[in-house]
Amino acid sequence: MINNSDESQRKARRITSLSKQANDLSTLCDIPIALIIFSPGETNPTIWPNEDEAKVIVTRYLSHTENEKFKNLVKLETYFSSKLEEKENNIRKTEQRNKEKKIEITFNRLYEGKVNIFDLDATEINELLKLSALTQDKLDDRKKRLEQQSHTSQSPSLLSNIE
Predict the structure, then answer these.
(1) Cα 66 to Cα 155: distance, rounded to the nearest angstrom
(2) DSSP secondary structure code for residue 45 in this structure
(3) What tens digit of pLDDT does each residue of 70-119 get?
(4) What is the pTM of this model?
(5) How many CB atoms are closer than 10 A to CB 34?
(6) Which end of the chain is more exposed for a tag (fewer CB within 10 A), N or C?
């Protein structure tokens, strides 16, 4: 048989825990929270933070129109759909990075003579060609920037020599 004092202690711990969580949520989300807890066999509810503040919070909530009440409500399905899409995008990006790293490793092994070109399949060869083209584009871009830098750094010195 459960002792009434044990039951009341458990109830007090649950209410204390719930109040702490409500306080944390209120602080983190910067929203007003009131708890009104009805226990079986009791006529007076437990109210947190206190009766006056709870009345103000409930009155303010009830004064809003239906549109205002649900304005910031995010449907769970919408929330999880956006999270799922975000995770799928992260997975795609990770898979792409892994694919690029694998091709770079294959290229390095090919360069080091650890892999024979005839051991590669058509997909790997195509990826190596893409990597080669991308690397060539980067080199061309760097070459242009270096030429521009050398041109701009020579121009002022040429002008100063002419004067």
Answers:
(1) 70
(2) P
(3) 776 767 688 888 999 999 999 999 999 998 899 889 888 888 999 888 88
(4) 0.44
(5) 19
(6) N
The two structure tokens encoding residue 115? 């892999």
Q: Cα(16)–Cα(29) distance, rounded to whole angstroms?
A: 20
State both tokens at 45.
């509810």
Structure tokens at 102: 């694998």
Taking only the tens place, the pLDDT of each residue in 139-161 is: 999 999 999 988 887 655 544 55
Token duo for residue 2: 């459960």
Q: Answer whether 103's CB lies under 8 Å from 111's CB.
A: no
Length of the chain: 163
Contact (Cβ atoms closer than 8 angstroms) between residue 146 and residue 154: no
The first and second tokens of residue 112, run together, are 């080091």
User: Taking a C-beta distance cutoff of 8 angstroms, is the pair 54, 26 a contact?
Assistant: no
Query: Rounded to an integer, what is the distance from CA 143 to the centroid of its chain?
Result: 38
Q: Which pair of structure tokens corresponds to residue 123?
A: 């997909």
Half-sphere exposure of 125 (CA within 13 A, CB side): 7
Going 84 to 85 to 90 to 92, the CA torsion angle's sign is positive
Upstream peptide bond of 49 is cis (omega within 30 degrees of 0): yes
Reduce the DSSP state of residue 114 to 3 states and report it: coil
